[in-house]
Write a structure and sequence with these properties.
alpha+beta, 8-stranded mixed beta sheet, 4-stranded mixed beta sheet, single chain, disordered N terminus
Amino acid sequence: MSTRHPHRHWSALRRNRLSRRSLLAASSRAGVGAAAIALVGCSGDDEPEQQDQSQQQAEQQSTPPQPQQGQQQSLQQSQGQQAAQSDQSQQQEQQSDDPQGPARGGIIRTWLAVERHDRWDPHRSRYRYTQAAHSLMYNRLVQPASVSTGELEADLCALPEMPDETTYVFTVEPDAAFWNLEPTNGRAVNAQDIAWNIQRQQEALDASGAPDPYFFRRAAYNRTTSVEASSDTSATLTTAEPDATYLSSVHGSPFAWITSPEAAELYADDWRDDTSDIVRNSGTGPYTPRLYNGFEITLARSENWWRDDSAWADGINFTSGDTNNIVSLYGAAAFDTAAFPLTNAAVETLREQNPDHPTFEQPLDASVELLAPLSADGFAALGDPRIVRAISLAVDRAQLVERLYAGHGRASGPLPWFLEGWSVSEQLLSTYPGYRNDREADLSEIAGLVNAAGGAGNIGVLPLVVADLFEGFFAGAGEAVRSMIADATGLEVDLEDRPFAEAIDQLRSGERFCFLGWSAVPQQADPTEAWLNTLHSAGAQHWSASANTELDALLDQMKTTFNLGARQDLSHQVQEMLLDGSAAQWQIKLVNGIQLGIHQPWLNPDPRLFDYAWSTNRLNNTWLNTNHEAYPTGRELPPLEEETEDGG
């Protein structure tokens, strides 16, 4: 039986709130890594939920001297000045189209597959559609400031102090408070809440005390070896060893929400099992739940939101339904943005029809990739790293961009081009085999690799499996890649379709074949953890017989290198080893598509809203010019539960 609690809002917003902490510079203090964020309904959502689940499961995979405390404080002050200038110039850019600048009011309306959400318990959810709503209702300890560089910024807490490489001292931001709703009624957030949230994730128990597998991030939170609330505002966390990605991958990750102990006690396992009752949320974020009816989610600005530099819109509405209607709904001003799930051709038509509407582009967050874990009994020849490299070079990436995305895409190196600071430059990438503008040279190198491995006639048949969902989106893509590989290598390639989830499960269980599909959606820009899992010879998903001590040493160094710029330099060295063939890989990135988009002239988006992953929270900093002559009248929030017609 559902237990609902009527909303009881304060009549006025709280005053004296602390402004948002700004971007942390790339040369920042120890421990700050990178986290990836995503735009609702924009990038990478072209794969159905079946893929989202299986891919998410499939991917889960010498330290420079650090500044002393006084140096850290000086760094923080300097970075604060730089960030203030950055915020000011960003605000000026936003104000350029409207001299009045950001203003409160209006309701933002955009598309989201809300029917695909999973659980409202913020610790037991994992679907991106739930995350999109949660990102506006909850806060993390810290959050990504930049998807491309990996910088972090304050969120519920200030960026932590680090007296050493295994200790993190978090201070709760002044005025931080839970919603003025049941069951917390606007109480302040304290350090004990932080400790409880971490311990709940680690214990991973249901209401009866039995182990609950739906606490998907238990392993990540177990990287915290101790947590102590030394005061109401200060919590000290420790790790067992230096862990350069601990902040970004645990506390700045897309699902690192802080909720209240009162809610967990009140809602118990109904919080996990009742997927219909959105009122069962208990957050500190800028928006509170107002409506969920299976195809629509509406959030309203919290009346005790504790920051005054955001939450411009009165409400945010996510609507799903027939995607064929998006074009007409956009034309009728029912939606403020039009991007995914529309095709680029549909968006281009809208652009032609509305030449005065601002447009945008963002890369799809899931790249097209080949998985080639062929090093197993019976595949000795196919598992030869030279054959795997030949397969990688055989795929004509430029041709594939045209074939899949009609030119709206780019070749992807070991990391996609849009991760600035992490990926190698396009200029450097274009000098390597498989990416250079010299197909004849590539074919010659492929022939040498195949001959050195025993010759095509002695290697056997290459099984190429194509995900049925992928083939459904890109009819004929499997045959196109099959013919590229066969023509370039001389190998016999056997093509078949399999269900996406089934193929991933078969790979995990030990069956070996070459697999074409989408990559998993990355949860952070920093590749350190994924590479330790898939490239390091001790990694849990190192599905290759080859080991490389030099590569292992670089990855070990990345794990303990806290300086962001230094870690990015190490990532460049890793990529160059993969690109020149001196290190083997079984995950072969091919291309990333680019999604086109358009938005209404009254929408003034935070530029970070169009990052490639997990960026729905940037709707918080997006504002509406409700004075615009075309802004639709009549947008209203649905009434609160207690606001019935008879006033009851």
